[in-house]
Write a structure and sequence with these properties.
7 helices, 119 residues, 66% helix, mainly alpha, Chromosomal Replication Initiator Protein Dnaa, Chain: A
């Protein structure tokens, strides 16, 4: 009987297989989107239009609920969905890399999948 194993992961063969397949799935999803070469400005325009805001709103320090939500969505799309680094997104938004990474790894917004379908 063959058991899946990886020296980097402790756990049963079933657990290892699950982790590896999850990683492959995420990698394929990210590569699929980055191959379409969607630039950060294009992504920004889509999010801003979809959320009914102005581009300057996301780049400002505005803390209104709608603006913060749109900024979070933008960060999740750019970092998680398209494979941009937190530093690239941070430079574009004019915020810290730490702020972008926190927003990107926060609880996934339901609208994320809707926006991913646009690309």
């Amino acid at each position: 009987m063959k058991v899946a194993s990886d020296e980097r992961i402790l756990g049963s063969g079933e657990f290892v297989e699950g982790l590896l397949s999850e990683g492959e799935k995420r990698e394929k999803e990210t590569l699929r989107l980055t191959r379409k070469v969607v630039g950060i400005p294009t992504l920004m325009k889509k999010v801003v239009a979809g959320e009914g805001l102005k581009e300057g709103d996301l780049r400002s320090g505005d803390r209104r609920r709608g603006v913060v939500r749109a900024r979070r969505l933008f960060c999740q799309l750019a970092v998680r969905g398209m494979g941009y680094s937190g530093a690239e997104v941070a430079r574009y938004l004019g915020v810290t890399t730490s702020a972008v990474n926190r927003l990107a790894i926060s609880e996934e917004l339901p609208d994320l999948k809707q926006y991913l379908k646009l690309f």
